[in-house]
């Protein structure tokens, strides 16, 4: 009798970290499997550790190798950490993509805004609908989250049903879209769920995430009470929050001015897909200065401190159309993502120095998370009754706490894995059965680099200790044709004794050249290496840091 096909799971991003989500499911045997990919997201570069790197993406080398067996890519929702890598990475895969209407429309708008974006077809699946992707039958189950049309995926296979939650929460009173489909999730639980692959973002927080309806009420109260101009910043993709701000503006007899390209794009897509039906038309930034101060509300991008976004430019007083003055208010209707605290703090401080009142989630309920807290995690487990739970979408602490909660809730098997682990889900005992290549790709300008990239490593070193450049012109006889040129970048001008570093380095270069025999001076490589070592040594002696040093030897 033939053995049944194995169902396996491997996270290639989004486990042990928040962001860069990519999960793959395989059906078959170890010699040949059909693969299904879920989400393809980014995380964002950190200027301190990755200077110049805009985006970080999962390494898809395994999927490239398995391209002929990759049946498709299914999107849970249209947040950047779940779909932001598609434009860059899809050309390496060229597989079918499946998404619901809003996600597909936002992706199309994103492609239209990018220079030279490839043509990427997306098959639209109705919310609550099902689609066959090779041997996988994928069901889109509506869940509440901070963007329209977020879905958990019930992946139906001959080996059993897997529930891949995506990002979700239980919100009985969402202001946009349906609540999480408890009825359908309970039905799946009665059918039998082999594995629950679940969001762990808020697994350390007790209780339940508050509802969007409570935030909407708070924003109305704050906008009505405001005296001067009001600016609200939030995640552009949070259409429910955009609607709440619009309702608050209307209640306070204010016009909404949309500021920032990302916000304009989402508003346009939300209108086209019916999510802002009945919401008043918004105004463009050009009219902002012509409206009375108590009749205007600016809805801005930049809640995460992005230096080129609208709010940062307003805080620096260099936005061409939008200004704020003493007595005006800024509402941060968002949570600061870990790593962005300094950038957001800088904007807040600039605004405070200008006499502008700041309201954050520390002052009022102006933001709620789109992720489930501990009581909601328990509810989902009780509805779905999984045989196995694997926590994903979280750092080590989040995964650990989610696993502990699942064990306490009576889940028969709980397994914590890492990016690259190949996990057998069934049939039979689950467990980690192997490893697939995983890692990171860095988007550096328009180029994708891997984590061993020379550019990434060297730029990090240069950010820490500058760089020394030395140019030497030698004759064919091994004599200096002219004085060496020294250029020091990012290195202090003087040492503690007040001596110029330019002079110290120049002397080190000259003494090294003079100390070499003529035969070595005639060989550019044999000359460059001792000069490089001498320059690094003298800078280290006087500064305590060894910068990269580039020596160029020209024979004339």
Overview of the structural elements:
- The protein has 556 residues and is of the alpha/beta class.
- It has three domains: 6-207 and 369-450, 4-Layer Sandwich (Metallo-beta-lactamase, Chain A); 212-359, Rossmann fold, CATH 3.40.50.10710; 466-555, Ubiquitin-like (UB roll) (Roll), CATH 3.10.20.580.
- Helix content is 31%, strand content 25%.
- The strands form five sheets. Strands 8-7-6-3-2-1-21-22 form an eight-stranded mixed sheet.
- The longest helix is centred in the last third of the chain and has 20 residues, at 524-543.
- The model has no long low-confidence stretch (mean pLDDT 94).
What's the SSE blueprint?
Layout lengths: L5 E8 L8 E8 L2 E7 L4 E2 L10 E4 L2 H5 L4 E5 L5 H4 L2 H8 L3 E3 L1 H13 L9 E2 L5 E4 L2 E8 L6 E8 L2 E5 L17 H10 L3 E5 L12 H14 L4 E4 L5 H13 L3 E5 L1 H12 L23 E5 L9 H6 L13 E4 L8 H13 L3 E3 L14 H11 L3 E5 L3 H13 L4 E2 L6 E6 L4 E5 L4 E5 L2 E4 L3 H12 L1 E8 L10 E5 L11 H14 L3 H4 L2 H20 L5 E7 L1
Parallel strand pairs: 3-6, 6-7, 7-8, 12-13, 13-19, 14-16, 14-17, 15-16, 17-18, 19-20, 25-27
Antiparallel strand pairs: 1-2, 1-21, 2-3, 4-5, 5-23, 9-10, 10-11, 11-12, 21-22, 23-24, 25-26
